[in-house]
Write a structure and sequence with these properties.
There is one protein chain. This protein is mostly helical. It has one domain. It is built from 3 helices and no strands. The longest helix has 27 residues. The chain is elongated and about 45 Å long. It starts with a helix and ends with a helix. The model has no long low-confidence stretch (mean pLDDT 95).
Length: 72
């Protein structure tokens, strides 16, 4: 399960360098899900909650960006 933690950390870190906002949020969501899986596997409820909030925030941001692009 540590593989999910490593992958998630790398994905979230790399997402900071992605210039396209849609792609950046997709990478954030993928990294967040990986870190959520790792957090569940180590049974740390605070990290599970933090990752859930992170994933929800990135998903809402992605939806907002897609909605703005569709109205243009």
């Amino acid at each position: 399960m540590i593989t999910f933690g490593i992958f998630g950390l790398l994905a979230v870190s790399c997402a900071l360098w992605v210039r396209d906002e849609v792609k950046q949020n997709i990478v954030f969501i993928i990294g967040g899900i990986s870190l959520l899986i790792y957090s569940v596997s180590i049974d740390e409820i605070i990290f599970v909650i933090l990752q859930a909030v992170f994933i929800i925030s990135a998903t809402v941001e992605l939806a907002k960006i897609k909605k703005e692009k569709s109205t243009k």
